[in-house]
Amino acid sequence: MEVKLENLIEQIKKEGIDSARKGADKVIRDAEKQAAAIVAEAEKKAEAKTAEAGREAEKFRQNAELAIQQAGRDTLLLVKSRLVNMLDLVFKRQIDEALSPEVLKELILKILDQWGSDEPVDIILNKKDKSRLEKLLFQGVRKSLKQDITLKISDDIEKGFRIGIKDGDVYYDFSDESLAEMLGQFLNPRIREILDSNHG
Q1: Which of 85, 86, 93 is nearest to 159 (CA)?
Q2: Running DSSP on this structure, what letter comes out for residue 161?
Q3: What is the pTM (predicted TM-score) of this model?
Q4: Which of 9, 85, 91, 106 ranks highest by number of CB atoms within 10 Å?
Q5: Alpha helices, DSSP H, located in the chain
C-alpha cells in the first residue's frame, strides 16, 4: 500500500509539475507574443517618427532653398534698381552741366523759330538762369523774334526750362529732370536687358 501511495504521490507530483510547466510555458508564450507586439508597435511608431522627421527635414530644406533663392532675386532687383537710379542721377548731372545759359538761349531760339505761331510765349525757368538768360536772349535778338516772350521763375526747375503759349496749360518740358527721364526711358531698358542677360 505504501508503494501505491508513493506511486500516487509521484504521479500527482508529476501531473502537477507537468501542469505547472504547461501553464508556465503558456505564460511565457503569451508574454513573448505581447513583447513581440510591443516591439512591433514601438518599431512602427519609430518608423513613423523617422519618416515624419524626414518629411519635416525635407520641407525645411526646400523652404530654406526657396528663401535663399528669393533673397538672391531680391538682392539682384535691388542692385539693378540702385544702378538704374545711379545712372539716372549721372544723366541728370550731365544734363545740368550741358544746359548752360548759352545752350538754353540757342535751344529757345530754335524752338521759337520752329514754333509756327505769333502768340505770346511763357518760358519758365529757375531764378539764376532767368537773370543770365534775360541778358543773352534779349540783347540784339528781341526785335527779330515774332513772339512776345515772358520769362517766369519756378522753384520746381533746377536746370533747363518749360515753354508754352502764354498763360496756357500745356508746356513743352526741357527741364533737366524731363530730359534725364527721356534719356532714361531709352537707356534703362537696355541697361536692364544687359543686367538680366548677365545674371539670369
Answers
A1: 93
A2: E
A3: 0.49
A4: 91
A5: 2-98, 101-114, 127-138, 176-199
